[in-house]
């Protein structure tokens, strides 16, 4: 009897052909042989079961390994997708940055153009402003000239106490004190001016019909003898506000010139010393 070796190392017997069966031993021997074959068959079955169990374990292990591999692969794919998504976001950001750069370039061009336009407008406005300043200066000088002309007929009386009064009569009385009894016909109008201040009387402005009388009155008011007759009342020119401030500024220069014995006169916004115009500093 020939056989095949099993995994257990035992030899599996293979039955012969039909001719061999003709020379089989007697029935008792055949029983023994069948018993041996059953044992061998059982052993083969056991070996097959063992192989099946081994294969089942390997299959389960392979299945578990495959599951782990699939999970790991899915995790890797998820990471790859996340990275790709971030790459897409970066690409989008780059595109947006490029769009922003283009927009910034357009804004720069627009700003450059606007700057040029503004500079041109500024230049025109500066020229216009200079022209307006010049025109304003000319108008101011004309108004100053007109106001000086209007006030050139006026005299201010300073220090006259305020009572229920007739300003025309008060001015005429002071003209009489200075020796101009008939000058009341040359008086056009007289009134108080300025705000009331406690303890300080307001000025009286007297408007005359002619300048010669004004000059004579101012000259007489400077005479020491006649000045005493006025009891502290002073007669001065009616300066414009601008000339008044300029004269206040020129007073120290005028005082020095008087002390030096020079002829001093302030008229129409000009300081004259010995007949020459001197700039007020």
Strand count: 9
Radius of gyration from the alpha-carbon trace, in angstroms: 66 Å
Strand neighbour order, sheet with most strands = 4-5-3-6
Order of helices and strands: EEHHEHEEHHEHEEE
**Cα end-to-end separation:** 151 Å
Which stretches are low in confidence, meaning pLDDT under 50 for 5 or more residues running? 12-22
CATH level-4 homologous superfamily of the domain at 152-238: L1 transposable element, RRM domain
Which structural class fits the helix and strand makeup?
Answer: alpha+beta
Question: Given the C-alpha coordinates, what overall shape results?
Answer: rod-shaped
Label the CATH architecture of the domain at 152-238. Answer: 2-Layer Sandwich
The fraction of residues in strands falls at 5-15%
In quaternary terms, these chains amount to: single chain
The tally of helices reads 6
Average pLDDT number: 83
Q: Give the fraction of residues assigned to helices.
A: 55-70%
Main beta-sheet strand count, sense and barrel state: 4 strands, antiparallel
What is the fold-level CATH name, i.e. the topology of the domain at 152-238?
Alpha-Beta Plaits
Classified by CATH, the class of the domain at 152-238 is Alpha Beta
């Amino acid at each position: 009897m020939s056989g095949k070796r099993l995994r257990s190392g035992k030899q599996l017997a293979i039955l012969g052909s039909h001719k061999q069966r003709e020379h089989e031993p007697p029935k008792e021997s055949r029983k023994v042989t069948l018993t041996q074959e059953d044992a061998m068959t059982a052993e083969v079955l056991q070996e097959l079961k063992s192989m099946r169990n081994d294969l089942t374990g390997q299959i389960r292990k392979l299945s578990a390994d495959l599951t782990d591999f699939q999970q790991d692969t899915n995790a890797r794919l998820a990471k790859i997708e996340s990275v790709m998504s971030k790459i897409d976001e970066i690409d989008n950001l780059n595109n947006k940055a490029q769009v922003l750069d283009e927009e910034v370039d357009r804004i720069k061009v627009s700003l450059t153009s606007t700057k040029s336009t503004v500079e041109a407008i500024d230049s025109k406005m500066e020229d216009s402003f200079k022209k307006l300043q010049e025109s304003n200066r000319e108008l101011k000088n004309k108004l100053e000239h007109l106001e000086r002309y209007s006030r050139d007929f006026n005299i201010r009386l300073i220090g006259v106490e305020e009572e229920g009064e007739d300003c025309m009569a008060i001015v005429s009385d002071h003209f009489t004190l200075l020796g101009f009894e008939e000058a009341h016909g040359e008086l056009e109008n007289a009134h108080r001016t300025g705000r009331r201040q406690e303890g300080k009387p307001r000025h009286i402005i007297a408007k005359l019909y002619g300048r010669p009388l004004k000059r004579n009155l101012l000259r007489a008011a400077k005479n020491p003898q006649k000045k005493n007759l006025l009891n502290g009342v002073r007669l001065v020119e009616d300066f414009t506000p601008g000339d008044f401030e300029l004269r206040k500024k020129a007073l120290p220069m005028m005082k020095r010139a008087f002390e030096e014995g020079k002829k001093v006169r302030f008229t129409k916004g000009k300081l004259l010393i010995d007949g020459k115009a001197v700039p007020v500093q």
